[in-house]
Design a protein that fits this description.
- Helix content is 39%, strand content 21%.
- The protein is an alpha+beta fold.
- The protein has a three-stranded antiparallel sheet.
- Helix 5 (133-148) packs antiparallel against helix 6.
- The radius of gyration is 23 Å and the shape is extended.
Length: 181
């Protein structure tokens, strides 16, 4: 907040409190300590890996999930032969995989990151407050009312669609929406 009005600063100072507000510039050590101590409420975009001493523990189920492009060269010999025989996977396809390493992973639940965080890229601190609680309560109340009173079922269905679409919009990857025709 380099250029802000005094009114905006006063408003945010009176209403929005974050645990790390007293620290203006955070170093890598500060962010790592805040993640480990669970005083950072927010997201960390970071590089993570499973330490060597925990690889045996996670060999059945990898703890890091990421979406990457997979081609025939990335899969094992048996499946590569199967893909070539059946003429599938000619082009790389995006898939969700489990891994022991992640680069620039956005970690929201910082508890899982504590053990395997190696380097942070970006940290975003949020105010620990349920900002969409009134919206969620209005959706739930309308749905309950629609279940009891059939005359209000259309309102309940509309609120259901509104809730589903707002959730879908929040998880949309807007990085792909750069070119407008």
């Amino acid at each position: 907040m380099k250029k802000t009005s005094k009114e905006l600063r006063r408003f945010t100072g009176s209403r929005l409190r974050r645990p790390l507000d007293k620290i203006k510039t955070l170093s890598m050590e500060n962010i790592l300590a805040a993640v480990r101590n669970e005083t950072l409420f927010g997201c960390v975009e970071c590089n993570i890996h499973v330490p060597d001493n925990l690889r045996d523990h996670f060999q059945e189920m990898c703890p890091i999930f990421k979406t990457i492009d997979i081609s025939r060269d990335d899969i094992g010999k048996f499946m590569k032969t199967y893909a070539e025989e059946n003429n599938i996977m000619r082009q790389p396809r995006r898939s969700l995989i489990g891994s022991m390493v992640g680069k620039k992973i956005l970690a929201v639940g910082n508890r899982s990151v504590k053990v395997i965080l190696s380097a942070w890229v970006t940290a975003v601190e949020h105010t620990p407050k349920p900002c969409f609680k009134p919206f969620g309560d209005a959706l739930s109340d309308a749905r309950r009312t629609g279940d009891v009173d059939l005359l209000k079922a259309i309102i309940a269905n509309t609120m259901n669609l509104l809730g589903n679409s707002s959730y879908g919009k929040t998880i949309t990857n807007k990085e792909r929406h750069r070119q407008v025709k």
